[in-house]
Amino acid sequence: MATYKAPLRDMQFVMQDLINFEKHYQSLPACDEVNQELIDAILGEASKFAEEILAPLYAVGDEVGCTMLDGGEVQTPPGFKEAYEQYIEGGWPSLDQPAHYGGQDLPMSIGLPVREMNGTANWSWAMYPGLSHGAMETIDTHGSEEQKAMFMEPLVSGRWTGTMCLTEANCGTDLGLLKCKAEQAADGTYKIIGSKMFVSSGEHDLAENIVHIVLARLPDSPPGTKGISLFIVPKFIPNDDGSVGERNNVTCGALEHKMGIHGNSTCLLNFDGATGYMVGEENKGLNYMFTFMNFARLGTGLQGLAHSELAFQNSLAYAKERLQMRSLTGPKNPDGPADPIIVHPDVRRMLLTQKAFAEGGRALIYFASTQGDIVTKSEDPEARELADRVLGFLTPIIKAFLTETGFESANLGLQCFGGHGYIKEWGLEQNVRDARIATLYEGTTGIQALDLLGRKVLGTRGKSLKPITSFILDFCKRARRRKELRPYLKTLVRLTKQWKALTRKIGFAAMRNRDAAGAASVDYIMFSGYVLLGLTWAASANAAYRKLEQGTSEEAFYRAKIQTAEFYFAKILPRTTSLLETMLAGPDTLMKMEDDQFIF
Ligand SMILES: Cc1cc2nc3c(=O)[nH]c(=O)nc-3n(C[C@H](O)[C@H](O)[C@H](O)COP(=O)(O)OP(=O)(O)OC[C@H]3O[C@@H](n4cnc5c(N)ncnc54)[C@H](O)[C@@H]3O)c2cc1C
Q1: Is 442 a residue of the active site?
Q2: In the prediction, which pLDDT does 301 show?
């Protein structure tokens, strides 16, 4: 069975040596009392919950999965409900929620590592409370005072959970096609009619109520995305005193039988005239839903990191124990029948790739969470505006790049185990199956790539790229003092300049032929991810050199950071060269074959 140990040391490295969270909190009056001691205490407690309660349910969640009962109720795997009760008792759902709803008002960047630990220990379980966060964010940002009073406190406390209902049989990526209807009732509420599919956590037995956030169309609304409105549709209608009342007409019609994440219920939901409450103004629903989607996209990026981390931890332990063949440079375990496989260069390539993606990805997403703190907690409007732009730019990259590298790492984790990786009992094949969904839901890699290149970069004539490229170039200038880093900084400066130049080239090509952007977009988002991870690794090496100079009892830990940076720059970052070439190859080779020439 796969095992999990929370990587507290690496989390501390990011939060203390690399980004300095304490200083970041001091710059935000709303959370200037958050200090290292408090962070350590929270992460310490959270790690116990993840390791002792959630990780042991990882395999059973996969084996038993969710079960639909005769009445359409859904039973989660054994132990999931009890774990959720303990989660509520521990006050975890309210950690980074506003105090006026009963939350603990801590910043998002404290909630994120907690979610990382829960998700790495057991992603399927973590999706139940995970989706509630998006629902809370959406209601708090766009809901009426009455809706906030009705739904926020039970969601914040964890008594109720949330879902996100966009997808229908005929529409996934293209939400303009959605058909689910909403008709106004005499009392001002709406009757929701239609079906939503693939609704994660859509029905379950963990909480007393489920709050569905649903996109639907009013009768006379314009076609396409301009005619979509947003509704809150609870499983049970809340009473005025906040208790749950009558059962609403939303039921689970079926559970999907899927490749992975078996412990999470993926539901077909039927809305048979279910009572819904409109959020905000009619026909602006998709804009409001973006609040949920952006939150969920970062959450899915976190899932990619979780799969890299789990793969790395388990394959590392195995590589130190499994004895096969001798090292090419002579026996390293002369008293044993063979050497441990960690001596082999190719096994090291696999381990270091996973380590580079897990730790580099952690640094990237934790940095993004500090931008989220600034957006929600800063008193300076300019700082808020800039952080919002940076976070908006990073979100599709984090979603696409960390999930693609998460899947690559999961696959490499299995490979390190040889044939044993293919066998269920080790848990590595589960990690591969669970990781596969992350590049698909919340918008596929292809769709994230179009969002980044089409909407965010070319749509702003490259303006959104500027804060990031300036940040990288500033870092390179400051870090030049350290001569050991100079080769990396030179590479990073070159790639950053290329990033800007190729954006211009694709922009010009797209003016002549719009397929040029679509043909380049996935290569572009992956290129962007590799460069950003280059930044995190150069910055990590910089921080490690500083600690070594200051003197530390953890020399091995910091040397490993420097060595992983060396590995990343030598063995992973050169992937950008090939991406650069394919990105600029243009759309012709993709488009010139007629559809009816695609034959087999
Ligand atoms: C386990 C699971 C859980 C899910 N959870 C939820 C949930 O909680 N709530 C919810 O609403 N949905 C959920 N989904 C749905 C998920 O978000 C969609 O499956 C996903 O967005 C893709 O939509 P689709 O499956 O219809 O694929 P399609 O939209 O049909 O896409 C098929 C392929 O075409 C590509 N494509 C489509 N349009 C373009 C374009 N313009 N340019 C380039 N390529 C394009 C896509 O990238 C993809 O490769 C879930 C799905 C699964 C499998």
Answers
A1: yes
A2: 98
What token pair was written down for 315? 């394959």
pLDDT of residue 341: 98
What is the Å distance from ligand 1's center to 168 Cα?
Answer: 10
* 120, two tokens: 């790495």
Report how far residue 407's alpha carbon sits from residue 431's, in angstroms, rounded to the nearest whole number: 9
Amino acid of residue 175: L
For position 27, what pLDDT does the model report?
94
Q: Ligand 1: does its nearest atom lie under 6 Å from the Cβ of 360?
A: no
- Distance (Å, whole) CA 385 – CA 523: 28
User: Rounded to 5 degrees, what angle do the CA atoms 133, 264, 140 make?
Assistant: 15
Q: Say if ligand 1 is within 6 A of residue 437 CB.
A: yes
| Dist. CA 135–CA 210, nearest whole Å | 10
Q: What pLDDT sits at residue 1? A: 86
Rounded CA gap, 137 and 498, in Å?
A: 37
Start-to-end CA distance of the chain, whole Å, equals: 42
User: In 3D, which of 568, 565, 567, 544 has the Cα closest to residue 556?
Assistant: 544
* Structure tokens that stand for 349 in this block: 């390539």
Per-residue buried b or exposed e for 152-181, using 16+ beta carbons within 10 Å of the residue's own CB = bbbbbbbebbbbbbbbbeebbeebeebebb
Distance CA 283, CA 262 (A): 35
Is the Cβ atom of 165 under 6 angstroms away from ligand 1?
yes
The alpha carbon of 445 and the centre of ligand 1 are apart by a number of angstroms equal to: 10
What pLDDT is attached to residue 108? 95
> Is the model's pTM score more than 0.70?
yes
> What gap in Å lies between CA 424 and CA 427, rounded to an integer?
6
3-state secondary structure of 581: helix
| Partners of residue 162 on adjacent β-strands | 211
Catalytic residue, chosen from 51, 442, 549, 566, is 442
Q: Are 525 and 579 in contact (CB under 8 A)?
A: no
Instruction: For the chain, list residues with pLDDT below 70.
Output: none
Q: Kindly give the distance from the C-alpha atom of residue 196 to the centroid of ligand 1, in angstroms, as a whole number.
A: 13
Ligand 1 within 6 A of CB of 517: no
